[in-house]
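Hi P.,

Sorry for the delay on this. The queue was packed all week, but I finally got your sequence through. Input first:
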Amino acid sequence: MANPDGGIPPAPPVSDSRTFARGLKDLIDGFRDSELWLHLGWTDIRQRYKRSVLGPLWITVATAVTAVAMGLLYGELFGQNIHYFLPYVALGLMFWNFIADSIKEGSVVFSTNEGLIKQLPAPISVHVYRVVWRQLIIFAHNIVIYVVILIVFPQPLNWSALLFFPAMALFVLNAIWVTIVFGVMATRFRDIGQLLTTAVQLVFFLTPIIWSTKTFNGNGQMSERMRLVELNPMYHYLDISRGPLLGQSVAAYHWYVVLACTAVGCTAAMLVMRNYRARVAYWV
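Then the structure:
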C-alpha cells in the first residue's frame, strides 16, 4: 500500500536475531557477566553437599575411593605395575568425569533452569558457563588425589607436563560447545538427554580408563584392536591430558584429532546459537 503522499512505504526492518553476530554477542555478554555464573556454579556445589560433614570434600573422597579400588582390582586382573597403573586410572577417572559430567549436566542445563531463564534477563550462555565452572570446581577438588598419588608413586615428570595446561584449555572449550549443542538439542527433544546418559556409560568401557593400551602387543590381531581404539575420540582427549602428567610423550596426531574435534564442535555451537538461541525460553 502506498503512503498518503503517493510514495512507496519503507521496507520493514530486517531482524538480526538469527545471525552469527547475535550468537557471538550472547557468548561474550554471558562471559562478561562472570559474577553471576561464578556465584551460581559455586552455589550449586554448596547446595549439593549442604548439611554434610565433609561438604565438597566428598567429591575428592568419592573419586579417590573409586580410583584406588579400580586401580588395584584391574591392575591385578591385567597384571599391571601398580606404581604406573594406579596414577593412570586415577587421572583417567578425573578427566573422564569432567567430560562425562559436562555432557550429562550440559544436556539438562536449560530444562533444569527454566525459572531463571524465564525470569532473569541474562544471556543463555550464562547457564553454559555455570556448568563448565562447576565442572572446573569439581576437577580442582579431584586433582588433590593426583598430588597424593604422585607423592606415594613418583612419576618421571619433565617439562612436557606443562602440556597439561593447553590440554585443559581444550577441555574447557569442548565443555562449552558440548553444553551448548546438547543442551539446546535436549531442551527441544527431551529423549536426547536419556540417550546421552546411556551413550556415555557405553563409551566409558570403550575408552582406556580402567584398562591400558599397553596390554596390546605387536601381533596383527592386537594392531587391529589398537586401530579400533583410536577411532574413539575420547582416547585422544585422555592421551593429551593424562600423558604429560605421567611423564609420557604424546604423539602429535592426538593433538590434531582433539583440535579437529574442537573446531567442528565450536562451529556446530555457533550454528546452534545463531538458529535456536532465541527459542530456548519457549522450549523449557
